[in-house]
UniProtKB/TrEMBL annotation:
Transmembrane regions: none
InterPro entries cross-referenced by the UniProt entry: Adhesion_dom_fimbrial, Adhesion_dom_fimbrial_sf, Adhesion_dom_sf, Bact_Fimbrial_Adh_Pro
GO CC terms: pilus
Protein name: Type 1 fimbrial protein
Pfam family, one: Fimbrial
UniProt cross-references to Gene3D superfamilies, sorted A to Z: 2.60.40.3310, Fimbrial-type adhesion domain
Sorted UniProt keywords: Signal
GO biological process: cell adhesion involved in single-species biofilm formation
Family annotation (PANTHER family): FIMBRIAL SUBUNIT ELFA (PTHR33420:SF3), FIMBRIAL SUBUNIT ELFA-RELATED (PTHR33420)
Residue ranges of every copy of the Fimbrial-type adhesion domain listed in the record: 142-280
Length: 280
């Protein structure tokens, strides 16, 4: 956002030449982040929403010297300049600001607040009589994400005789993880699957059954949609996401029982995993 380029917040005249100008000061706490736009590195100030800061730049119109270049607003103190003139000239300025990510974002509302003030500088004094104050309105921050419902994968009933020894497996069951209502405008979407039970064979992505299971000698193996071993605990970029269209998408997988012990005992055979999405 940018304020209007204003040249007449204050109009001054003097009988002798003196330095008169415009200076800005922040009203927010400084963060450790910076934001670069072109050749200018702007300081970033904290907002009321974790992970969201506001970068602020200013330029001044001063006392006969006209417009000055854009500068980063100082983390503390005053930012501006003055010009030496005895004539009747206006003094003003312009401010630009943008919200920037400073860390993991928690959805919330950036509260309405005054965040910058400008004051006239004259006679080596920052004059507080006629300040110009800049405020932001309440701004809602939403975390862009897809909706990912829980998935139940019935692997069905299988005979113990289907598995012929350690490393053999049953027929696989195909399933999909849905990514619903994905917004447009994200740079990339990644996903990762992690086991909630011990990993019995990391190279084959085989995990143990959970504590409520009664079957023994077998685990569950996770495969991608093409039947290849899907690596656990490893982020994968989802190539099916389009920043231009977003929408409802799916990621295909397969799962099957995998013999891990010398003997397989029949019974209930369940396990669980977590599915984590990362958005940029």
């Amino acid at each position: 956002m940018s304020t209007p380029a204003t040249t007449d917040w204050w109009t001054c005249s003097a009988n002798v030449q003196e330095f008169i100008g415009t200076y800005f000061a922040p009203l927010l706490a400084a963060s450790a982040a910076t934001f670069t736009d072109g050749s200018v590195v702007y300081n970033v100030f904290d907002t009321s929403v974790p992970g969201v800061g506001i970068a602020i730049g200013v330029r001044v119109y001063i006392n006969g010297c006209g417009w000055q270049p854009w500068n980063a607003l100082s983390l503390s103190g005053w930012t501006g300049s003055a010009c030496n003139s005895a004539l009747l000239y206006g003094n003003g300025g312009q401010l630009q600001a943008r919200l920037v990510k400073t860390g993991p974002i928690t959805a919330g509302t950036v509260g309405a607040t005054a965040f910058v003030k400008a004051q006239l500088y004259a006679n080596a004094t920052y004059n507080a009589t006629w300040p110009v104050t800049f405020s932001i309105t309440a701004t809602q921050v939403k975390v862009q994400s897809c909706v990912t419902p829980d998935v139940q994968v019935p692997l069905g009933q299988h005979k113990v005789s289907e598995m012929k020894g350690v490393g053999t497996f049953t027929s696989s069951t195909s399933f999909k993880i849905a990514l619903n209502s994905c917004p447009t405008g994200m740079t990339s979407v990644s996903y990762q699957i992690d086991a909630l039970t011990p990993i019995l064979n990391s190279s084959a992505s085989v995990v143990a059954l959970d504590s409520r299971s009664s079957a023994a000698g077998t685990g569950m193996q996770l495969l991608d949609g093409s039947g290849n071993v899907f690596p656990l605990g490893t982020p994968k970029v989802f190539s099916g996401y389009s920043s231009a269209t977003g929408g409802n998408l799916t990621i295909p997988f397969q799962a099957r029982y995998y013999q891990t012990g010398s003997t397989v005992t029949g019974g209930i055979a369940n396990t669980a995993m977590t599915f984590t999405m990362t958005y940029q």
